[in-house]
Amino acid sequence: MSARNPLDVAAIVGSLRRESYTRRLVEGLARLTGDSMRIEIVEIRELGLYNQDDEEFPSPAWVAFRSRIKRADGVLFATPEYNRSMPACIKNAVDVGSRPRTESVWKGRPAAVISASPGTLGGFGANHQLRQALVGVGAPTMQAPEAYISGSNALFDAGGEFVNAATRELCERFVRSFETWVRQFADP
Ligand SMILES: Cc1cc2nc3c(=O)[nH]c(=O)nc-3n(C[C@H](O)[C@H](O)[C@H](O)COP(=O)(O)O)c2cc1C
After folding, report:
1. Count of structural domains within the chain
2. In angstroms, what is the span from residue 127 Cα to ligand 1's centroid?
3. With 90 as the cut, is the pLDDT of residue 160 above it?
4. In a domain, 140, yes or no
5. Residue 150: pLDDT band with limits 50, 70, 90
């Protein structure tokens, strides 16, 4: 990977919902980055469920997704929580990117996980299940700051500003730390 300026960060959102709070959170994070990093949401709704039988002739959606991630300097995973786990769509994206095994798009690619929930636990369970999968696919994943964002349904005011100063401060620290993390893995 070569260090681009700005760094190119692909964001994967684990919700397909039109009014997704998690997606809004990622858009909020993107507004916090300086000129040195760009966060772009990579869509996963068209991927279709992973099926090994389809590897011989992978769908255009799989090919496009894999090549988009391979171009990225880093990957930001943002997940809500479904039944104390990560939603199927984001695990599916991890699976699609992980094959063919020798060409996994995740191996060595710096990543970070942020989770969000309208409830108080901030998607802790989903966050750690996703981290477990990222260990399995060899994506070096930022350890700190951990980010479990509660109250995801009420993060922003009408102007798109964080309502809560402490949440904003955590999110700022998160994106700054992620930039430092990604640069460690990029060629000079
Ligand atoms: C099938 C399903 C299971 C859910 N399970 C959890 C859960 O385990 N923990 C939690 O905090 N919220 C849970 N929720 C509520 C979600 O956090 C909430 O719907 C949230 O808005 C989803 O994220 P999004 O706004 O980005 O789509 C669940 C929602 C659905 C639809």
Report:
1. 1
2. 13
3. yes
4. yes
5. very high
- Indicate the average pLDDT of the chain: 96
Hey, which of 82, 121, 152 would you mutate to test ligand 1's pocket, going by the most ligand atoms within 8 Å of its Cβ? 82
- Expressed in angstroms and rounded, the spacing between residue 82 Cα and the centre of ligand 1 is 5
Mean of pLDDT values over 141-153: 98
Q: What is the CATH number of the domain that holds 136?
A: 3.40.50.360
Q: Ligand 1 center to residue 5 CA distance, Å?
A: 36
Q: Quick check: is 1 in a domain? A: no
Q: What is the pTM of this model?
A: 0.97
Task: Provide residues with CB under 6 Å of ligand 1.
Answer: 15, 17, 20-22, 80-84, 117-119, 121, 123
For the chain, what is the HEC assignment?
Answer: CECCCCEEEEEEECCCCCCCHHHHHHHHHHHHCCCCEEEEECCCCCCCCCCHHHHCCCCHHHHHHHHHHHHCCEEEEEECCECCECCHHHHHHHHHHCCCHHHCCCCCCCEEEEEECCCCCCCHHHHHHHHHHHHHCCCCECCCCCCEECCHHHCECCCCCECCHHHHHHHHHHHHHHHHHHHHHCEC
Tell me the percentage of the chain whose pLDDT exceeds 70: 97
Question: For residue 12, is it within any domain?
Answer: yes
